[in-house]
């Protein structure tokens, strides 16, 4: 039977869309389901504030009478206005290893973008760079970490067959937690603190953490402007991210630095890897899923870096070493063995050099694809 494409409009169609990846990845050893409560909220314009600045569409492909693929189209109008672009995105692209299905879904997204006068499409890329991005192209033997795509090896091949090519890559480093803090970190750390220009802030409870969330995201807005695909966050979007992740953040792995004016100028945030717990929970918190996730958090020996930033006028002042040393100390105290860098743009040579100083090696590479519609 030929492939049919329909726009997702009903609750039952959205259910098929959200749960299709479970079927596609049923034999995928590395598959981690999403937290389904989060998924339903993500696709709810009444709860996900990013819909307010974006045009979106969801397509579901059917073949032989059953769902065979899905894709989301996004036009971030705020981003396009700031960057004077006419670009669009595809996101959440999943299908079986079927070139016909892939072509039909991609064609549908391209046609939708053309109707909206879009000249270029990139993806996988969501509402912002905080959503999982890119297809895995190297490191299929490595465990995945939270907030990254769990794509299968054939997806990049299908993209190329649809006329897409490399836009940019992100790399993922894995670093051992050292038995002893490197001497160069200790030297820079001492020199930085002795200057009396900076104050390091560490916290111990989630209740205390809540008051620091908005300043952290305000710093992100100031420092991420040059990062590929970044769009400034509104206060509502900040609150959305905070509500989504605060329950799984361990305050011990939040490090902040303030200047003499008591302004936040740098921070680093990491969390224990909980993918094994989400897998055992089947992506559901209840009735017992939260227990699996909590156990995974406590038993994990892998710490994942999620976010970090240093205000531009304070870079090259040793703040990265100060944050790094305190994070390593906490990792060692909690018996972590490895740190995952999460995704780093391949062009971010300064950050890559810092990870390599600590013995980090690239274990995974993700590719964002692009195609001109002109």
Protein architecture, described:
The chain is an alpha+beta fold. The protein has 2 domains: 4-169, Gcn5-related N-acetyltransferase (GNAT) (Aminopeptidase), CATH 3.40.630.30; 178-336, Aminopeptidase (3-Layer(aba) Sandwich), CATH 3.40.630. It is 36% helix and 27% strand. It has helices at 11-24, 36-42, 77-83, 99-115, 154-161, 183-194, 206-223, 235-245, 275-281, 289-299, 319-333, 349-357, and strands at 4-7, 54-63, 66-76, 87-95, 120-123, 135-138, 165-176, 199-202, 254-258, 264-272, 302-310, 338-345, 361-372. Strands 1, 2, 3, 4, 5, 6, 7, 8, 9, 10, 11, 12 and 13 form a 13-stranded mixed β-sheet that branches. Helix 6 crosses helix 11 and helix 7 (206-223) packs across helix 8. The chain is globular and about 70 Å long. The chain starts with a strand and ends with a strand. The model has no long low-confidence stretch (mean pLDDT 92).
